[in-house]
Amino acid sequence: TIWFMVILLRRMHRSNNYWFLSFSVMLSSICGCLGFVLPNNNELDQDLPRFGLGTAALGRPGYINLDRDETVGTSNVRSVEYMRELTESMMDYVFELNKNGEMPLWFDCARSYGKSEEFVGDFLRKRGIKPKDVYVSSKWGYEYVADWNVALADGEPHEVKDHSIGMFLKQVEETVARLGEYVRLYQIHSATFESGVLTNADVLDALARCRRERGWRIGLSVSGPNQDAVIRAALAVETADGARLFDSVQCTFNLLEQKAGPALLEAHRAGVDVIVKEGLANGRALRSLTLAAVCAREPALRELG
């Protein structure tokens, strides 16, 4: 199913319009992919994977996706080793699907996804996967503070947001220690106007230096009701030599949330890679009666499901 979608999207993505983006999200919601990419048209980016496996729900015991007990196991069994084994089984499955090398494989991590960077990095090294044969991205800006607990006291957060230069310098070294040679893309996690990250000169300079010295692409993820405005603001951020800083944007876009669509297409046309997250709306899209009715009416979609 995933490979059919890849072929279809490769044929369609040059259409460069909002209908394509909406249709792609519909397919990703039906088929259960965790993310997809609308790459820009630069020759250097033609190896960018079209679909990826996000690790937010795999790298830590507690997450916001629906029916977690049924799909992952009850909270009392989600030990570190249990979640490591689950992550590795998912990654093994993805590699098995791609045993003919039909599509570059992409795994998306974050410092706040518990032990996702550790799980992914250890798996790739144990399997002898070469960095050139996989695309790995991660994010900085949130710190996981739940200490592998699912139930916390009222008001206690699982993660704490911090877009300061100190947090960046700390977390980039943590990412290097766990994923190091595999990282291709490093992203600000949930950039907002309130965090001030897009106007913090020290952070922006450090990101530009990271790209220059480490060879990583630099991106940002966005969330909240102002995703579109943040995307447009990010497109205007430049390095000291006048080049655009951000190579990619990762944005919530699904059947239930499409406000950012026009801004995402503006980013795509400007040469920025677009990464869709929460394509299933954390499971809510799969409960859509309208979507179920569409699938029931269309033989091709029934086969895809």
TrEMBL record:
Domain NADP-dependent oxidoreductase: 73-285
TM ranges: 18-38
Matching InterPro entries: AKR2_Oxidoreductase, NAD(P)_OxRdtase_dom_sf, NADP_OxRdtase_dom
Organism field: Heterosigma akashiwo
Keyword rRNA-binding: no
This protein's UniProt keywords: Membrane, Transmembrane, Transmembrane helix
Protein name: NADP-dependent oxidoreductase domain-containing protein
